[in-house]
Amino acid sequence: GLALFWVTRIGRGSSHFHQTIFLDFPEYDGKDRVHDLNAKNYKSVMRKYDVMVVYYHDHPASNRLALLCEHVCVLQLVAQVLDEFEDEDIGVGLIDAKHDKAVAKKLGLDESDSIFIFIDDEVIEYDGELAADTLVEFIYDVLEDPVEIIDNNRELKGFENIEEDIKLVGYFKSHKSEHFEAFADAAEEFHPHIKFFATFNAKVARELELKLNEVDFYEPFIEDPVVIPGKPYSEKELVKFIEANDRPTLRKLQPHNMYEIWEDDIDGEHIIAFAEESDPDGYEFLEILKKVAEDNTDNPDLSIVWIDPDDFPLLLPHWEKTFDIDLDHPQIGVVEADDVSSILVFR
Questions:
Q1: What is the C-alpha separation between 343 and 320, in angstroms, rounded?
Q2: d(CA 66, CA 57)
Q3: Which pick of 20, 214, 252, 283 has the fewest CB atoms within 10 Å?
């Protein structure tokens, strides 16, 4: 039930995408690169590629065929862009939930109308908007190493500038350290949704106030990290800690994670805050939200979802109409996750 985002579900891949979203993308060249996967061919097709992107779609009713065609057009463009990627062979395929359910079952796919990425015996679900630029960027993130190494001040600055995502950073003796290996194994479990960093550099560790084999956990938008207790940690201990703390107090809804966040509600409700970061009023409002999040970081029942209207231009008219609000100004309210028509309060 993702009522709030019905415009995106129905409208993503609309003709608008050619004009605005893909300014840096090539035009689709008309070549068919997307495979229809079925019981006869799926093994041989998937063997050809290092990475396989699979759209497991519902069988379209006759009145929804145009929508499936639009989605396939998006995937054709994705396949064209990925075709030029030299480091890995990346394939794109479709599985029909009605005709090829057995194939989906063999691949361990249970949720239709979803995109899955197969890489190195891992299956990663993509919970974002079906837009070519967002999906390609996500796939490139998947291809990155799960742990990024910080070795100098410039890289440290880059780490410090990330505030919208959960991030962890640890200090270890070297790549060969068993404690680093446990950290890297934990990173694979959450890659690319949670960002893992490590340093082997004593100077960088001092800047981060990290002791050897210690890992800090940073919530989005909160400056001071939590030191994960009980170092050195096993992979299992790290995974357990992250799973217990992976719902931040303040999260930003982004095109690549919008469904994942929306489905992670509290008692069926979300506190939604609309604020444009580039606008002085919005910026000030956001600073207040960050302060509220910091003061309530230990409250498991508080979860605020921040939406920057600039990130979702196509949805603005829908939101303004549904909530009867003016998004030229910051707004905050409580909505039901699966029925946004029952708005509890908006001010």
A1: 13
A2: 14
A3: 20
